[in-house]
Amino acid sequence: MDEDLIGRIQANPKFAELVHKKTRLGWQLTIVMLTIYYGFVLLIAFSPSTLGMPLSAGSVTTLGIPLGVLVILSAFVITGIYVRRANTEFDQLNQELVQEVRS
Amino acid sequence: MIRTLHGRLGFAAATLCAALPLWAAPALDGPVEQRSLNWHAIVMFFIFVAFTLGITYWAARRTRSAKDFYAAGGGITGFQNGLAIAGDYMSAASFLGISALVMTSGFDGLIYSIGFLVGWPIITFLVAERLRNLGKYTFADVASYRLAQTPVRTFAAIGTLVVVALYLIAQMVGAGKLIQLLFGMSYSSAVMLVGVLMVLYVTFGGMLATTWVQIIKAVMLLSGATFMAAMVLSLTGFSFETMFQTAVASHPKGSAIMSPGGLVSNPVDAISLGIGLMFGTAGLPHILMRFFTVKDAKEARKSVFFATGFIGYFYILTFIIGFGAIMLVLGKPEFTETIMKDGEPVKQLIGGANMAAVHLAGAVGGDYFLGFISAVAFATILAVVSGLALSGASAVSHDLYANVFARGHTNEAKEVRVSKIATVVLGIVAIILGITFENQNVAFMVGLAFAIAASANFPVLFLSMFWKGLTTRGAVIGGTIGLVSAILMIVLGPAVWVKTLGHPAALFPYENPSLFSMPLAFFSIWLFSKLDNSTRAANEKALFLPQFIRSMTGIGAEGASRH
């Protein structure tokens, strides 16, 4: 990559926008995932009885089961949200940027 | 790591020895009694081997350039790569191990599988696309992008080889024990068979064959597990409540299996384990290598999305399978044998608690399905060791040979030849180590591999992509401190110091070092980078901007021009 191209990319507002959006979404979702996971871990460590509560009176299924499955699903959904936005919106922005700086 | 669980779960030691020595690889612990030949499994297994060797032959004819050999020509789609990554992750031990863990302790099995899964989103956001945009074949390409090639590649290659060696030993020992049980073959012939097939796949078919072996195995494992879970649910009228009720009624621990049982009684170790699992995954060389097999960052992201879906689905299945095993296998006389342990007769599952899923396969699908599941378990080990061998061989040929010894004065053909030689050597070493370690407890090795990946490989890779101030000196010294401290903490910790070496008390109190060794690595990398005022360091900082632009936009990335 030559100096000139680097300069043009840096000067292009789309680059700043791309970096900003990608970084913000990435870190936001990272925090969401860490909160969900470590929230679950802390619940196990400090209040296992919460997870052991029956879902409804008389049922053997405990709250922990759907919560655990939700943690698994959330990992999938969070990845999906990022991939969807990155593969459409961000990539679109990126393509526009590449075309502009190369023209 | 397994041993960690041991201490924490607080169950009767006898049940545990059989139940837990398993997560990513070492499927079995202690002496295994050889069984009569299991013909159904052997036939199924040879069909798999014949099929994959056919694919290797096909791949060999398409593998010419170094790009073909290391990265399957970059032509794998996101979906296929997602399956392959899932295949790397769903090892025989996580299948047999987690379902066995669910059978013996219920809910705790779910906790464990969640720990394995939640690292994936983080990998998507932080690693996958930047890695694809910056690298060519190995993660050392990325780490040495703006740093001095020789020291950084040497460090990265050592990190790779250490992780690969530890993981390989664990897999080989697990493979030997498992095959002894499932197929009735002798331990050493099983280890040799695994080693020879691994060398064949990798040397002839390279990454293309390795990827397809991984994909086929992932599909077989997912369909087998789906069938088992569906059969279990059909018995309870597809009602989870009925399934849990039946299980609680027949489990000796009763309703205790429906809530956490003390897996995470020590919060420090629990968080440390979580960190090791999460960031270790992002530093495993054979997983990172998979991001170079797709054509661009878009496909790399999709790979992780599909992988997360497959792995999450698989863990939910293993949970159902574990409960199925409580209903159909646990305590049933036809699956139980009495063995002598420490002079006491103990009842256990035939072949040990790890065999829960295998016995359940027989119970719900008959002999042929039992054979199929046994063959899948073996196929799984083959696929995983092939991926490991390829990443070890790439570290030797691409990083050490081409960029350190020959300093770039070589050609692709020579480089590929060196990888093939390295694969053969790795295969021989793996067989020798597998046989040497037959009667050792290797369970801690997988934990060690993850801890090193999280404490040496990940910090260097992460900071090279995210921190402008990183210098060669910081990366090499800090990374080495991470590597050495992770090893020391495990050796001085309960798993090795007490359980393997027999000392009365551990010098380092925790089983999982990552909570300490990873921040130590980050701090040392930062410190030694800050202290580095050389002109080289100034130059390296100046190169961050072009690197950052490429990692973000993919401009100049390998293979992008081809499409």
UniProtKB/TrEMBL annotation, chain A:
Transmembrane regions: 29-51, 63-83
Regions annotated as coiled coil: none
Organism domain of life: Bacteria
UniProt keyword terms in alphabetical order: Membrane, Transmembrane, Transmembrane helix
Name of this protein: DUF485 domain-containing protein
Source species: Chitiniphilus purpureus
From TrEMBL, chain B:
PROSITE patterns: NA_SOLUT_SYMP_1 (PS00456), NA_SOLUT_SYMP_3 (PS50283)
Compartment annotation: Cell membrane
Ranges in a coiled coil: none
Primary residence: membrane
Xref: InterPro entries: Na/Glc_symporter_sf, Na/solute_symporter, Na/solute_symporter_CS, Sodium:Solute_Symporter
A Pfam family assignment: SSF
Membrane recorded as keyword: yes
Name used for this protein in its record: Cation acetate symporter
Annotated source species: Chitiniphilus purpureus
Classification lineage: Bacteria, Pseudomonadati, Pseudomonadota, Betaproteobacteria, Neisseriales
